[in-house]
Amino acid sequence: MIMIIEIDGFFHQVLLTGKKCSKQQLKQMYLQAKEITIESKDFSNVFCRLHNFEQIPYSKDIKVDFVLDTDTDRIYALSY
């Protein structure tokens, strides 16, 4: 199964798709990518390379499984 996550940061909003995982697994993946990211604008590219996710065109109409807020380091699910 696949999941869609939104990377929400001060400079950008990006949608990524990849293998479905738990919130705890996603947190570990987030921390790994954050640790080696130098510029915050490069975070989504680093995350994709590390964890085999792909960027998809952004749309507010797409329902996401989780949001990764790179400004606050929060990971949460939206209620639809």
Model description:
The chain is α+β, with helices and mostly antiparallel strands and 80 residues long. The chain has one domain. It has two helices and five strands; from the N terminus they run E-E-H-H-E-E-E. Strands 3-2-1-4-5 form a five-stranded mixed beta sheet, covered by helices on one side. Strand 1 and strand 2 (13-19) form a beta hairpin. Helix 1 packs across helix 2. The longest helix is centred in the middle third of the chain and has 14 residues, at 23-36. The two termini are 20 Å apart.
Set down the secondary structure blueprint.
Elements: E1 2-8, E2 13-19, H1 23-36, H2 43-51, E3 54-56, E4 66-69, E5 74-76
Parallel strand pairs: 1-4
Antiparallel strand pairs: 1-2, 2-3, 4-5
Short description:
This protein is of the alpha+beta class and 80 residues long.
